[in-house]
Design a protein that fits this description.
It is built from five helices and 37 strands. With 649 residues, it is mostly beta strands. Strand 23 and strand 24 form a beta hairpin. The longest helix has 31 residues. The protein is globular and about 80 Å long. The two termini are 27 Å apart.
Length: 649
């Protein structure tokens, strides 16, 4: 993978510079012939408009390339390359995130691999974007990390013809972190292609991904008081004792994906008929490795994850294959909309290399699925209205269903409203039902009931405020909990909550402008109604940024500088377990009620955006009470530099 990455940076600049030199030589020849006016006319004709640089999602939503420097670009200049409001990062770049905003959780009716804490940076099929560009485009992202490494994302796309596009991208990160045994090393390779015929009867989008996420796991610090007492000798975080000094987890996956459709009638008219097909083949692999089983807390030996079958060399491996096919027929009427009818076939195999026979239970080696579903979808778009209504249900023995209704109304450019309702009957993720480990308490084979999830969402965007309200009802909710007797131990097992959980969230955003100054605010309110503390969230999450913008040096540079406050109220945050790559509920320690301040200076010069940030600059004078998880401190103060550089030919 590193060889591909090197070749990419070796070849792409060569291509770009050769194109520039070729253009320069051509211009010199023409100028010698006295064709300066014709050159100007040709350049004017060849100048591409911004709407010729398009990025298209799987759902056919289109965005355009944007090289501006806004406050949203400041929020999204991070490892995930998106606004991470509602997520709480762990101390090292490339680690997992604790979820503050539960409504960010996405659900699928099909059983998934699991190990969700390892998937924040894992790009799923619906997150891949396809391109259509008038000229070759390159984007380079860079950001410094905590220790000994860097974060880089390189993207290149070009249209061979107006109907055929290719793109290649690689995001890589390496950071050793500030604490013992905290190295993160990740890679995300993506290749996409898009094609359509000249008569626009056939369209296809395809991609290939290879992703690997390696994390050294230290299990958190053993003695919280050493951190909170602010003893100067622990300012070097390497001196803080951790539970694990030689453990690591590893997730990797490959995917081949194709989505295409063909119009049966030769010319597009008021009535059209299409056949469509989608193919998705994916394999994943998760490994937890721990050389030394006992942990040391002061002078005491503890077994962090309970008893084990082996005295050293834990090496748990879980494998997963999935193949998904979906075939459908679409009738399109220019007045009535689109009517889709489809059937799909979902096959998966989640497996280990052995059968575990215990006195109380036999743990099988695999969990295989073969699910067929049928459904319909209706799409309508006319004037200011846009609607999408889907219903699908399994036609095999497994019971799953999905009702998803979306309605959007755009009054004008300033006022937009949307509504969503989803009723989901979801099969459990595979790692809830089956897991094998060298740790005795981490072996289970279950037959949990389906989760039932009802969701209502309403969004409004106006010149005065942007608001979102979400109501969610969860039945038979699945979760992980710690069943260990001793505080130093984690023996995590899955469980199902038989009662109802009601969740409500209200999120509002508003920016106030005062000349060159602005105050950008995002506020989230959450509340749960449940008999037991199963779904735990902070009641208030807020982000407030006061910043200044202005042009300088005869508008050659655009400056953006300000301070951001992040804050959430105290709550019983979920803890992280590396053996299963999941978060679990706990009731021993609250985190939160701590202000986090960042100072940033950003600049834009032509198509280059430069970012400089003093992250968490108040950590040295506001007390050591900042955590990402109950025994995992948040990041200390550090200065980080980054940039995004766009090239157009």
């Amino acid at each position: 993978m590193r060889i591909l990455f090197f070749l990419y940076f070796l070849i792409v600049p060569t291509v770009l510079f050769s194109q520039i030199r070729s253009a320069e030589n051509t211009n010199k020849i023409k100028s010698l012939r006295g064709d300066s006016e014709s050159i100007k006319e040709q350049k004017a004709k060849e100048q591409a408009s911004i709407d010729q640089y398009r990025f298209i999602t799987l759902e056919r939503d289109t965005t355009y390339i944007d090289t501006s420097l806004t406050i949203q670009k400041e929020y999204s200049h991070n490892y995930l390359r998106k606004d991470n409001f509602g997520l709480l990062a762990f101390p090292n770049e490339g680690q997992t995130y604790n979820t503050l905003q539960y409504s960010l959780t996405k659900f699928s009716p099909y059983p998934e691999f699991g190990f969700k804490a390892k998937h924040f940076n894992f790009l799923e099929a619906n997150q891949i974007r396809y391109s259509s560009v008038a000229t070759p485009v390159t984007e380079l992202y860079f950001k410094s990390v905590m220790e000994k490494g860097q974060s880089l994302d390189a993207f290149f796309t070009l249209n061979i013809t107006p109907r055929l596009n290719f793109s290649i991208a690689y995001k890589g990160l390496r950071s050793s972190g500030k604490y013992i045994n905290q190295l993160a090393s990740t890679g995300n390779f993506r290749f996409t292609t898009s094609y359509n015929t000249s008569n626009e009867r056939y369209f296809a989008n395809a991609h290939y991904t290879y992703q690997d996420i390696l994390n050294e796991e230290n299990g958190g610090i053993t003695t919280i008081s050493d951190f909170e007492n602010e003893d100067p000798k622990y300012d070097n975080r390497q001196r803080l004792e951790v539970y694990l000094t030689d453990a690591k987890s590893f997730l990797k996956g490959k995917r081949i994906f194709l989505d295409h459709f063909f119009r049966i009638n030769t010319t597009k008219g008021a009535n059209n008929l299409y056949v469509a097909h989608q193919f998705n083949y994916e394999n994943k692999f998760f490994e937890y490795n721990q050389v030394t089983v006992p942990s040391t807390v002061g002078a005491t030996t503890v077994f962090r994850f309970g008893d084990s079958y082996v005295t050293s060399g834990i090496n748990d491996q879980t494998r997963y294959n999935k193949m998904y096919n979906k075939a459908g027929l679409t009738y399109e009427n220019m007045t009535l909309g689109k009517f889709h009818f489809f059937v799909d076939d979902f096959r998966s195999n989640y497996y280990y290399n052995q059968i575990l026979i215990r006195d109380d239970k036999t743990i099988p080696a695999s969990l295989s699925r073969n699910i067929n579903s049928a459904g319909g979808q209706y799409e309508y778009q006319k004037n200011n209205w846009k609607g999408n209504f889907l219903y699908s249900r399994s036609i095999t023995n497994q019971s799953l269903s999905n009702l998803d209704a979306n309605l959007q109304y755009d009054l004008n450019e300033d006022y937009q409203f949307s509504f969503k309702y989803q009723n989901l009957n979801k099969l459990p993720n595979d790692n809830y039902n089956l897991y094998q480990s060298s740790y005795i308490g981490y072996n289970w084979y279950n037959d949990f009931r389906n989760e039932k999830i009802n969701t209502i969402v309403a969004n409004a965007s106006t010149p005065w405020i942007e608001a979102s309200v979400q109501l969610m009802t969860l039945r038979d909710h699945l979760y992980f909990e710690n069943t260990a007797i001793y505080n130093e131990e984690q023996v995590i097992t899955p469980n199902q909550y038989g009662k109802t959980i009601n969740y409500v969230s209200v999120k509002v955003a508003k920016e106030f402008k005062f000349g060159n100054f602005a105050l950008n605010n995002t506020l989230l309110y959450q509340k749960t109604d449940q008999m037991d503390a199963i779904l735990n969230v902070p009641e208030i999450v807020t982000r407030n940024t006061i910043y200044y913008t202005n042009y300088m040096f005869k508008k050659a540079l655009f400056l953006q500088t300000g301070v951001t406050l992040n804050y959430f109220t105290k709550y019983m945050a979920n803890d992280y377990n590396p053996v299963i790559g999941e978060f679990f509920i706990q009731n021993k320690k609250e985190i939160g009620n701590y202000p986090n301040l960042d100072f940033f200076i950003n600049a834009k010069i032509q198509r280059t955006r430069i970012y400089l940030k003093a992250e968490h600059f108040n950590s040295s004078f506001s007390g050591n009470n900042f955590y990402s998880a109950p025994n995992m401190p948040y990041r200390d103060f550090m200065i980080r530099f980054g940039l995004i550089w766009n090239f157009f030919n």
